[in-house]
Structure formats: C-alpha cells, structure tokens
Batch of 2 targets.
Target 1
Amino acid sequence: MGLAKYVVRRIIYMIPLVIGISIVSFFVMYAAGDPIQIATMGNPSITEAQRQFLRNYYGLNDPIPVQYLRWLDHFIHGDFGMSLYGGKPVNQIIGSLFWETSKLQLFSIILAFIIAIPAGVYSAVKQRSVTDYSVTSVSIFGISMPVFWFGIVLILIFSYHLGLLPSAGAHGAPSLWPVFGIRDPFLDELAHLILPATVLIFAGLAWHVRLLRAGMLEVLRQDYIMAARASGISERKILYKYALKNAITPLITLLGLEIGLMIGGAPVTEFVFSWPGLGRAYVTAVSKLDFPLIMGITMIITIMVLIANLITDLAYAWIDPKVRLE
Amino acid sequence: MADTSKNKESGFSMKRGVSQWAVTWRRFKKHKSGMFGLGMIIALLVIAALHNYIAPYPPRPLPGSFTPLYEGEAGMPPSLKHPFGTTVMGTDVFSEVIHASVYTVYVTFLATVITMLLTIVVGLTAGYLGRHVDEVLMRITEVFLVFPSTLLILVFARIYQLKVSEPFWYIGGISIPVGLTIIIFIVSIFSWAGNARIVRGEVLRLKETEYIQASKSLGASSRWIMLRHILPNVLPQVIVLATLTMASAVLVEAWVSFLGFGDPNTITWGRLLQESFNDLSTTWWAEIFPGLVLFLTVLAFNLVGDGLSDAINPRLRE
C-alpha cells in the first residue's frame, strides 16, 4: 500500500477516536457541577442574578448535548473558546505556555534517550558485571522514585542548601541573572532548566534502560549475532548496528508515546518547580474547574498522542522492512 | 527442574511432582533483592495492622484540623522524641506516617484487585473468544491507552472531591473513607488497559498449544478451557503484573493527593507531603521522611515484581 494512502487512512480512522474521547471528557466534566458556583464561591457579595448572567454569558444554561455540539463546532474551526478565568481565549493561553513546556520536555526526552542507549547496551553486554548491577539498581530506583519527591530533594540540596540553582520558574528577573558570576539571559534559562530536567531525565531514563537492556539480552542470544561474530565483524559494529537495530523498537514506541504526551507536560514536575507550562496550568484549571481550558489541553494532547502513534508506526516500517503498513 | 511445565503435565505417575508454585518459590528465595522487597512489604503490613500501638501519638481527631499540637512543639527538627520531627502545625510526622500506612495498604490492595479483575476478564475473553469480541474489546482498550489518563484522573478526582458528601462508610464497625475509595476506582479504571493487552497476547499464544487442542478435541467447553487450562497458565504473568500495579497504584494515589486532589477526609502519605510543601524551606523533614517511606514502599513492590518475573521466566535471566 502506498505511504500516502496509508497515512490518509490512518488519519480518517483517528476522527471517530478523537470525537469519542471529546464526548466522554465533555460529558464527564459538565455533569460534574456548576463552574460558576465554584468560581464565585469566594465572593460573598455576588447575587444569584449575577451568577445567572455569567451562566448565560458562557452558555452554561443550555442542555449538555447542545453545549457539546457548540463546542464541537468551535473545535472544528480551531477555537477552544474562552477561559472562565481572566477572560483570555484558551488558544492564547495554550500558545503562551506551549514553548516553555516543549523546551523542558524535549530537552529531557532527548537527553534521556541518548544516555539510555550506551547504558542499556553496556549493561546487557556485561551482564552481571558491577556496571550492570549499578545500572539496573539505579534504574529500579528511578522507576520507584516519586518524581515530586525527587524534585523536592533536589530543591533542598541545590537551591536551599548549596544555593547554586534556582528552585522555581523558567526565567529570573535580570537582577537575578548572575549565574556563577556571569550575567547572561541564556545561562539564566539553562540554570532554571537543570533541576526540573534532571527529575524528568531520571524518571524517563529508568524505563528506557530497562527496556533496552531486556531487548539487547534477547537479541544477543540469536543466531545471526553469532554468525556476525563468526565472520569477524567488529564487536562495536555488531552491537550498535546489528543488535541495537532490533532491540531498539520498544524504545521507539516509548519515545513516540512520550513525545505524544509531551504537551501535557509533567503536571507534577511543573507543579513542584513552579514551571510556567501547560502541565501546571492544567492542574490549576482542574482545581478551579475551568472547563474550556481543561478540554482544550486534553484535546491537544489526544491529537498529539495519535499523531505520535502514527509516526511511531511509520518509523517501525522504516527500521524493520519486515513490518508492513496495512 | 529446569522445565517446570513437565511436572504439571506428567500426570502418569501416581506421586505428584513438586508443584510449579513450589519451584517458583524456591527460585524466588534465591533472589536477594526480591526477598528484601518482600521483607519490606511484610513490615508495612505489620506496621499498618499495629499502627495504634506503634505510633507514639494518636492521629488527628479530624483530618482537616491540626489540634494536636503535641506538647507544644511546632516545627521541631528530628529528635529522639519526634524521630521525623514535627510540622509547623505541631503534628508528629512519625506518628502520622505510621497511621497513614493503613490507607496505603488499602489503596494498594483494592486498586490491584480491581485492576487485575478487569485485566483478566478483558484479556481472557478477548484472547480466547477472538473474532468480533476481540475486535470490540481491543478497540475499547485502545481508547483507554490513548486517553491522557494522568490528566483525566485529576479531573475525575476533583469532581468527586466536590461531590462527596459523607466522609466515611461504616461497614461492620470499620470506617471506609469514601473519597479515597472513589480515587482507587478512578485509578484502577485507567490502569488495566496495558495489562489486558499483555494477558491477551499470552492467551493467544497458549490457545495454539497442543494440550488446549487436545482438551478441545475431547469436547471441553470454552468456559472449562478458559477457567481450568488457560487461567492457571496466565496466572504467573498476572501475578507479576499485579505486583507492578501495586507499585504504580501507591505512586498515583500519592501524586494525586500531592497535587491537592486527594480525599480531604483521609491523611495519606501524599496528603502529608502536600500539607508541608509550602513550608519546605523551614521544615524539610516533614517532606523528606514521608517521601522516603513512600519511595521505599514503591521500591519494595518493584523489587518483588522483578524477583517474581525472574523466578517465573528463568530463561530471561540466563
């Protein structure tokens, strides 16, 4: 089947999935309660008439299916509506936070992937060596570590105790710029990035290394590796060209999933480090029940995951010619 | 000994061979880190059972309140009297961690039971019945896998946090926290899908084996084959998945509570971490110790999971 035809078919197949997920999310949320009641809870002087006015303004008095269809109409036209707080359009909020989240996530995902490859390969080749034991123990620590707690420990050590790195935010005011005595906006950004990125890298790395190690152990036992060794091909080439190519597929799936979920940020990590990204915005939106913003972020992530899945499948076919696109 | 399945199938001799479970246990016992994890889990169960006797101070009368200013010592660093220190509100961190262990055990086991029931039912029926049933169930599974579940868990948790009116159900003198139970259900509903896929794959493999074909040709019903032949053979895999589910259930509940979407009427480890987060710069011990206990608990379940999977699939260790 032609590549273009395959991609088009997959995209058409995504449409019912996206609509299904939007229906479930929308109905669950709107059946939950009255966002206006929650938004105005802290305001004792507000009257019921004013509340009613707000509900009318946001169209919350219509039956839920009508509200959904209206939402869907806007969604198809690329509009997520207005946030219930601050009166800004959801598109604008998402747009302004998009870069900070992507910066943190891409940096961490790519670095975790790059570190995982030599660690996983080496650990599998030298199975039961000291290195292997340390790599496997560090990775089981990594998957067991509550990310937010790890973040807290890093803040305590590097920000509060040593005073080396900032504990919150993505940027500092120019007066706070000096990083190790050098005033520079780029260094300042980098300094803010280090702690949250370390948390994300450590958490992601553990899964990558475990998957790759298991895959390599499986592949290295196969006949074609022995054949390659017998024909005198250098060990380095065998490992990184012949074996890795087959062992890396599960890692690619994981990478695809991570990039898909990337835009959701890591709500917990962003919360701990007060990172001005989508993950933290999502947490505040949920606690205030800012429905349009929640729906907007949820839908963006869903679409990103589906596209990332498609790209992952294409990457599979590219790596492994045996995989047929159908 | 190397091939455990032989012991089960050689029904010719009158004397029964060593059961598969005994063989697995023997292998597991040699797995040092697995045994260490098991020891920690047993310790957790003991602590949870005897929490009222172990903890030096009683729990708070009402979870939202901070009345028990234990001997007027607020924000004290760890000492012999307060091994984990006290919070700014004057509660003893050590006692609270001990009391909260009960909820950890509750979350772990209930979440795992629900998740694994869903996993087994979906995995088994989809794998064994195949065709249309498989098609429909796998589509549903796919939706659950695509759902940004970490985010939706928060939405659900928040909604029920606002809706729950009574804090506890009293069943036979035992008080069951309503909010926490709802969170457990939410977490479980979003964690079966990946497991079900693995079990389905295993069932598909088993379905083609000769003994199943033999049983079929002897006229066994689908139900008989599923429950008597396939289920016992996927059980080892299911147990490994269950241990890993326990680890993730503890973690998920902790971060849901940490973000402030937990049950307002129960003090869990995540809730303790949330309460003291703003006082991080002054009372660091109130964050470090509950987090450390949480980390060790998750680690224990993961170590047991690793040990079990090595004991069940010894081939992978060679």
Target 2
Amino acid sequence: MKKLSILLALLLLVSVLVGCGGGNGTVDNNNNNAGNQGGNQTGGQTQEPFVLNVHVGPNPDTIDPALNSAVDGATLIIHAFEGLYSLDKDGVPQPAQAEKVEISEDGLTYTFTLREGLKWSDGTPLTAEDFVYAWNRAIDPETAADYEYMFESIQGYEEGKLAVTALDDRTLEVKLVARTPYFLELTAFPTFSPVQKKTIEENGEQWALAPETYICNGPYKMIEWVDSSHILYEKNEHYWNYDALGPDQIKFILMSDVNASFSAFKTEQILFSDDIPTEEIDAWRDKPEFNLQGQLGTYYISFNTKKPPFDNKLVREAFSLAIDRNYIVEQIGKAGQQPAGAFVPTGLSDADPTKEFREVGGDYINVSKEAYADNLARAKELMKQAGYENGKGFPAVEYLYNVEGDGHRLIAEALQQMWKELGVEVSLASQEWNAFLNTRKNGDYQIARNGWLADYNDPITFLDMWITGSGNNDAQWSNPEYDRIIAQVKQSSDQEERYRLMHKAEDIIFAESMLAPIYYYVDIYLVNQKLQNVYSSPLGYKYFMYASLAE
Amino acid sequence: MLKYIVKRLILAVVTIYIVATLTFFLMYLVPGGPFLSEKAPSAATLAALEAKYGLDQPVTVQYKNYMLRLLQGDMGPSLKQRGKEVSDIIFTRLPVSVKIGSLAVVVALACGVVLGSIAALNRGKALDNIIVFFSTCGIAIPSFVVCTVLMFILGEKLRLLPTFGLNTPSSYIMPVIALALYPMSYIARLMRSCMLDVLGQDYMRTARAKGLSQTKALFKHALRNAILPVVTYLGPMIAYTLTGSFVVETILTIPGLGASFVTSITARDYPLIMGTTIFLAFLLVTMNVVVDIVYKLVDPRINLQ
C-alpha cells in the first residue's frame, strides 16, 4: 500500500501545480482553425472564408501607432490603421482617409479633405479633429514616442503644439515649417495614423493590447491577440474601401525563430515569411518564392573620430579603402546586397524624381572588383602619409560588433584580414546588443559596426543624424560646415537647392571619411506561389490587404 | 513537523529576499538600458520615459520603491511591452508553460523510473545496454537539436504534426518530448544506479530468503529505497520544467513563460527581469520544501528536525 502512496504523493504534487497555474486567467489558444491552415486553401473563396496565415516578426512590443518604431510593428499597424494617404504598390502615396489635398503656392499649407462618412471600427464617426489629437499625442513628452521627431516639419513642433487645425469635420489644415516634398509620404507613415481619443483616455496605454479597445480606422481590425502566438485580424466593415479587400482574415503568426518560420513556410502552414535562414539563401535564390528587394538602409563602419588613431582623416580613409566590399557581399552577405560606395543608399529619388539620388551623386569609393587593387595601394599610401608605413607604430585598435547572428562576426573577421594588408593588427571584441548600443552611443570604442535604415524616402533621413550632438552620431563627429548645410536643407523650400545641398553634405562625409560604408541592405521574403498581390514598401512594410489566391 | 515547516518557510522568505536584492543590483550593473535602440530616442523622450518609470532616481531609491511595491504584490509595469503589467505577462504565459511542463514531468518521471528499473534488473544484458545508450544520448543532446530534428522529421518530412503553436492536441507532442527527454534520461540513469545499489543490499537477499516473491520484494523494498535520489532531483526539475524553456518555446513558437526569462534580460526590461527571477526563486524554494515533506512520506526514518 505504501508504494501507492508514494506515487500518489508525487502525482498530487504535480496536479496541484497544474491546477494552480491553470486557474489564473488561462489563455487557451484552441481557436477552431481546422481548415484554416494557409496550405489548405484551395481557391473556393466563396464558400470558405479566406484566412491568410503569414509571418512578419515576433511578438511586437507595441502596436500603438505612436509608440511603435519597429518594421514588423509597422506592418501590423498599417493593416489596422490608415493615414491621410497610403502607399501603393510602387511606393507612391495615394489618397486614403483623405480624398484630396490642396497645397498652397509656397508649399507650406496643406489642406486635406477627408472622405465622406469615415468611421472608426466601433462605428463612431471619424473627423479631422481625430488627426489633430493623434498627432499632438505623438509629440507629447508624456507619450514618449520614439518617432516624435517625424513631426518636426510641422509648425509648432518646438512649442509642443502642432499647427494642425480641423477647419470642420472633414477639413484638416497643416502648416509646415519649410517646403517638405515628402510630406504626403509622411502622412502615410504609421505614426501619422489617427487614433481615437475616447478609447485612449478610457484605457490608457492598455488600449492597444486588447481587441475590444483597439479601435482603428484601417482595412482590418484586431479580433484576437495571443501573446507570442498570433494576432488575428478581420476585415473592418466600417472601412471606406471594404470591397477592395482580399483576405477575410489575416493571421500574423508571431514567430521569433527563423528556422521555425522557414519550416512553416515550406510546409505551407504560412504563405508568407519575412525571413529566411542565411544558409538557405543559396539554395532558394532562384526559386519563384524568393523575393529580393532593395531596402533603404546602409551597413557601415563607425570610426570614433574623437579618439586616436581615428581622429586622423588619413587613417580613416585608408581603413575604408582597404575593405574589399565585394568579398563581404558575395562570401558573407550572400543575399544580393549591393557593395556601397557612398552612404545614402540606392532607391532614394533626387530633385528630378526620375533620377536617383545615388545616380546624381555617384560613388565616392570605387567598389568595382577591378578597382580593389588600386584602392588598396592608395590605402597603403595614405597610411604612409599618416606616418604609419606598413603599420609601423600604429597603436592597438579594437573593432567592436554585436554578438547576435553570425554575420557581424564573419564580417569582423574578414575586415581583420583586410586591414592586415595595411600592416595593422586589429583585435575583435563583441558585446551583447543592448550593451553594444550603449558603448557605441557613448563613444567608448574605436571602430564599430553600424547600420541605418531610412525613416522615410528622403536622403535627409541619412544626413541629419551626423549633425553635432545628434543622438545617433555614434562617430562623435562634429563639423560646423556640415551642421550649417543641414540647417539650410531643413529651411530650404527650393527642391533643386535642397538636393544640391544634400549632395554637398554627403561630399563632406566622404571628404572627411568619417564612416566606411560596406553595403546597402536588401529585404528578403518568401511568398508562396499561390499568393498574389502582396507587396512591400521601400521601408520594408508588407501589404496583405489586397492579397488573393491563385486558382 | 509543523515547527519544521514554519522554519523552512521563514528561511524561504529570506532566500527570496536575498535573490531579489542581488538580482536588482546586478541588473543595474549591466551596461545598457531599456530605452536604447539602433535609433536613439531624443533626449526629451528619454527623460520623459525615465521619469515615467522612476528610472531617473538613484538606484537605492528605486530599490526601496520596488521592494515596497513588491510587498503589496505589485511587480510594476513592463518597460518594453508598453501598457502591460509584469504580473499580467507572467500569469498569462505561465499556464501555457505549466500545461506542457506538467505533461513533460509526468512523462519524464513515469518513463524514467520504469526504464531505469528495467535496466537495473537486466544489468549487463542487451536491454540494459540499449537503455543506457539512449539515456546517455538524451542527456548529451541539447534541446535545440532535439526540437530541430523533431520539427524536421515529424513536421517537414512526414507532415504529421504542426511545427508551431499549440492549436491542436497533436501540437503538444513535440514540445513535450523536447522538454521531457533530458529529465527522463537523467531519472532513468539515476534510477538504474540506485536500483543496482539497493538490489545488492543484504536486506534484499533476506527478503527473498524469507520467501517474498521477486515482484513483491522489488516494490516493497527496492523501489522505495531507490527512488529517494529521484525525489531530490524532482524538486528543482519540476520548478524549471513548469516555467518553460527558452529554446523549446522559441523554436516551436509556444507562448509560454520560458522565453521571457531571456528576452527580459536582453531588453533590459528591469521589472520583468525582477518579476520572472523572483517568481522562479519562489517556485524553486517551494518545491524544495515540498520535496522534504515528500521525503518523510517515502522514508519515515528521515528525521526532518
């Protein structure tokens, strides 16, 4: 009998614990999704609801349009919210909540007319006043939004009260500081979405967590969010363009492991994956599912311009020229990244919108394969001029990178080899992401990896970060002329002049060699062949609202 | 017995207090902060955030505030997952981990004890060798390999099981195997060696000599003595298994608590680090007290004083 009691005691112990845990507001994710698995969809959309399973990222920290600053969070937000304008397939802003806009002669006053009968997802009317509230909320220090600076082009930003006025329920007037050619594009940015005052005042920051309080105005509305499992969206019957929508429901599977999403994609449990394991790129590159698109971003190296030996321009230039960018892109990146000969990446347009900023500005470093030998010779020459011939007398330097992912380490090791050509022995140091950011920001490094992604489609998003004292100026760089030019760009209302100044600013970056670009980022994603009409914006946001299935 | 339990409980509270204090100060020693990102927030935003969460005060003041709030059962808000309370995060995720974890504990215990005993009784024979071989593998193979292999074979190649989530009963199979494999193998090996030890004891021979059947001797004398070390191991094992595993949850996309132990640290989400650590400490300490009491039930000779 006693032996039974032992077993019973153990079982009891286990079941007690199970009971304890189960009682507390259990989240049960048994949603009856039999047959909802993406792979089982076979066209017959009329009978069966079209539920699209996709992966764009892990559990988002927030999907509050004002607070989010992540790319995957933005994808979630643009499906639930819609700004005055929204981006189409080609990245061009199209009227969305607004039906039209009138821009004054001087380009400083925008008068938007909202569509008739706009409604929130709870059925209450949406008015121009909602935009006034949302935009002012985003810049309120109480809100503490990462992207509050996106509103700096609007008058009153400095004072904390934006010059945005609701002339009547359907008319919104916005006054700008200076002509801002990309302003319509900004209104399509998630941070510029309207939010409902009532739900936010009643629920505080929690409003963006639950379907009942996540009142939105976009094509879809949230009906379920199970943390780290999935977010389920359904068509919003109050959306003005309801009839154009594709999937009845979109289920964002919140995966944090790239092998997990890859596996789910291969087994057709999801029809879209925003990621692919690096080691699989070679095998998948030529398949029709593989999508590669330039991303507005640059992978580069920061020199700490305040600390020797990198306070010497000659040394910085030598280090930059000694990098074999093609090797890094082909042997390590492997994803079709473009070797970077400048800082502002390809894909951004110039004053003449048919030309790219990069085309007009040209490259500062010749990154063709043939030029590498010359670059290296020039680098050696520069080292000699700097007084470090063949690296003689060069102090010990350390390259800092973050440990997440293998790529940064592999690049670091390659750079170490390349800089050996200059007779320099660079040691490598790695830190965990958060500590790394801290070290780099505080300038406690000599050389470090860095990267920058555009906030919007205008070169200034790559240039204003280098003004003296900017929070993102990891190089601790300061150049009075540069600061002056950037200030001019921000005040200028003449397109030609703006772009001319921006090119001039980039000239200074490279005259000083204050950074060494390596490559322009690309965005890779996988789309099942059955899935059509899914597109991605230059900022990497994915649009599923018009998706359809092939027969 | 009661006196003993009271004494243990006081000790438990002291232990948790020490763990909490150490964690708090270690956490602030680590460089970095919760509001850092590739795009640095403006100085005004940063100041507003720090003021909002009281991070602008000296660490000792923050410590005092935190502890006072903790005494009232308030674990504070998460710094990263805006709008969420730490207690919400823990108690919505815990049930998921407990569901899988408890299944894994039962599987590990049942299979481990049985396999270990069988191996001991067949010492040196083929069956023993097979069990020893597989239990060695079970200990040596890390769980991310187990998960990946299971996912590849059962999910991708045979397409028998879903590779993510917990939507159907069948989706429990992979995580439970992945979680149970290590403790099961450990218990099997422990059980085997203890059983062998016990089987060689004089009293076993005496029992058989007095005419007790093999089965009876085994259950009545051998198993009870041999299982004691397993009980010791069970305490912390249950605490760890029920709070989930970072690796298993990440690879198999399970919304459990385990991943929060790691992600809270990389995100420098201070209140969440404290919350999860204190919670785990509480569970561990409790399990150890429970184990001691179970000891007494299994072996009355043990004196808890």
